[in-house]
Amino acid sequence: MRVLIADDQPSVRSALKLVLEQQGIDVAGDVSDSRELLAWFKNNQADLLLLDWELPDQPGKQIIPILRARYPKLSVIVLNSRQQTRTEAIAAGADGFVSKGDPPEYLLSLLATAQRADRQK
């Protein structure tokens, strides 16, 4: 499984990359805003996107429908520090939600579930 990380905070991107790579997960890249995100997909592929709900130039509720239209097989897990965002993220088309305060094991369990689902496609 190839994962792309989209978050405007370099420290969050670095921490996520470290956790994922320690688990043997292929981090295909990381971007800091939606323009970089869309440009990245023009030349690259990922199976799963870890998407910060509050990217500075285009929030998750606007970017997820664009991604769904262009890359229907892409799994999207939304990251946000506010737990109440979960309902809005799922309604926008996210496959999962992780609070930035959740333990890393929770994110890893979602990724394992997504990886099993990806193998069954």
What do you see in this structure?
There is one protein chain. This protein has a 5-stranded parallel β-sheet with strand order 2-1-3-4-5, with helices on both faces. By secondary structure, it is α/β, with parallel strands linked by helices. 49% of the residues lie in helices and 21% in strands. It has helices at residues 10-22, 34-43, 60-70, 85-92, 104-120, and strands at residues 2-6, 26-31, 48-52, 75-80, 96-99. The chain contains 5 helices and 5 strands, in the order βαβαβαβαβα.
Summed up:
The chain has 121 residues and is α/β, with parallel strands linked by helices.
Q: How would the blueprint of this fold be written?
A:
Layout (H helix, E strand, L loop, with lengths): L1 E5 L3 H13 L3 E6 L2 H10 L4 E5 L7 H11 L4 E6 L4 H8 L3 E4 L4 H17 L1
The total of beta strands comes to: 5
* Largest sheet properties: 5 strands, parallel
User: Span between N and C termini?
Assistant: 13 Å
Helical fraction equals 40-55%
**Could you tell me the strand content as a percent range?**
15-25%
- Element order: H for helix, E for strand: EHEHEHEHEH
Average pLDDT? 92
Number of helices: 5
